[in-house]
Amino acid sequence: MARPKEFDTATALDAAIEVFRDKGYAATSASTLVGALHIGRQSLYDTFGDKWRLYLEAVRRYSAQETDAHLAALKTGPRAIDGIEAMLARVVATASETCLGVGSICEFGTTQPELTKIHEAAGRRLHSAILDRVQAAQKEGGIASVIDPEQAAQFVTANIAAIRVAARAGSSGKDLAALARLALRGLR
Amino acid sequence: MARPKEFDTATALDAAIEVFRDKGYAATSASTLVGALHIGRQSLYDTFGDKWRLYLEAVRRYSAQETDAHLAALKTGPRAIDGIEAMLARVVATASETCLGVGSICEFGTTQPELTKIHEAAGRRLHSAILDRVQAAQKEGGIASVIDPEQAAQFVTANIAAIRVAARAGSSGKDLAALARLALRGLR
DNA sequence: TCCTTATTTGACTGATCGTTCCATAATTTG
DNA sequence: CAAATTATGGAACGATCAGTCAAATAAGGA
After folding, report:
1. Which CATH architecture has domain B60-185?
2. What percentage of chain A exceeds 70 in pLDDT?
3. Structure confidence by residue, pLDDT tens digits, B21-30
């Protein structure tokens, strides 16, 4: 056997997420990453391959963490609609930190198959969880039954992005909260 | 007097918009711009200063054009709510072309004062036009009077961004139309 | 026609890009 | 201790970056 890694891959990846989320991919240099991850240049390339693979890994990890947080919030509250509301409230509360998912979609769209697969995987997981809560809320009367649940779930997802773009544009927390409230109002 | 320009500045700017809107700022090279604008490199620098100023000029022009289109759609229809609906319908119809405004906000946030001023100028113009229609719609009964009109206007703006981000992520036209419909539903 | 003033063209700058190579040091297992 | 494996830092790679310089060209006004 040999010398074990001195740094934690996950910690390094978290640092990469931090860099990519507020600079994007193209504007981030390898030197910046070396500085931010606190590992040597060679260790970076040995561990993650190259800049693009590191980016993919960062987006993958971020998406998983972020989706986890969404799902946890969704389980909140006595009624299903409370869970949806809690999820949106969390988005509002954390909106000052740029979303790597939104940034990644805006920067690349669907032009990079490997990246798109990551987005879709996280998207499916979030969508089905929201869909589940929407349907439960419809049974409880928290969401109108006339609304197509699939569309409602997509609407909620889209409004998460809307809140985050608004935040990136400089909107206040109060204004973001109003966006969440009006989005929910559309489902009532 | 001396030799006149062989190219049209506005045409060149339109070409720059085209490049920036689907590559972003950082990923666009000066060489790419020279190729796309069909003018010499020196003409580019003489006319627009440098890459950043060209970008600012492109965003400025794009924002103005886009806001014009929004305002034109807003005037449509017998009722004010019809104008808002027409505006969203146009956004859905044109969503396959990436929005430079959204891209610019996601790439830079509010970190670049000169850029932020451009966004805010276009934002104010659009906001006040939407606000005007929202208030009219409230008098006509198309939008519930209990809703704060300022918040309603911001909600509509945010949902324009939502539709565009969803489109960039690969959503179908049908799904985008559903987003527009549900957004309007929140105001009824 | 000739001079003045711009525009165009293409070669060229130093800097930085992402990435690799290499030598050295460190640490664990056999 | 020796062998194996990994981390580190610096030097270097060719490519490309944004931006500049200077010569060539073209179009006014006199």
Report:
1. Orthogonal Bundle (1.10)
2. 97
3. 999 999 999 9
A45 Cβ within 7 A of any nucleic strand C atom:
yes
Under a CB-based contact definition with an 8 Å cutoff, are residues B39 and B15 in contact? Answer: no
Question: At A163, which amino acid appears?
Answer: I
A161 contacts B166? CB cut-off 8 A:
yes
The predicted pLDDT at position B8 comes to: 86
The CA distance from A15 to A13, in Å, is: 5
CA B134, distance to chain mean position in Å, is 20
Chain-chain contact of B165 with A170 (C-beta, under 8 angstroms): no
| Residue A91: both structure tokens together | 């988005």
| C-alpha closest to that of A157 among A61, A88, A54, A64 | A88
pLDDT for residue B158? 98
CA closest to C25 C1', residue: A3
Tokens for A2? Answer: 């040999």
The CA distance from B179 to A144, in Å, is 16
pLDDT over 60 (residue B184): yes
* Extended beta strands in chain B, E state: none
Residue B2 pLDDT level (bands cut at 50, 70, 90)? low
* Residues A27, A30, A36, A41, Cα dihedral to 10°: 180
CA A91 – CA B59 distance, rounded (Å):
28
Say if CB A74 and CB A86 are below 8 A apart. yes
Rounded to an integer, what distance in angstroms lies between the CA atom of residue B75 and that of residue B17? 26
Q: What is the pTM of this model?
A: 0.94
Return phi, psi of residue B7, to 5°: -115, 160
Terminal CA-CA length for chain A: 62
- As a whole number, mean pLDDT of residues A142-171 equals 98
pLDDT band at A9 (very low <50, low <70, confident <90, very high): confident
d(CA A169, CA B108): 9
Collapsed DSSP state (helix, strand, coil) of residue A96: coil
Who among residues 22-81 of B has its Cβ near strand C, under 7 Å? Answer: 39-43, 46
Torsion of CA B129, B161, B27, A22, to 10 degrees: 110
For the domain covering A56-185, report its CATH number. 1.10.357.10
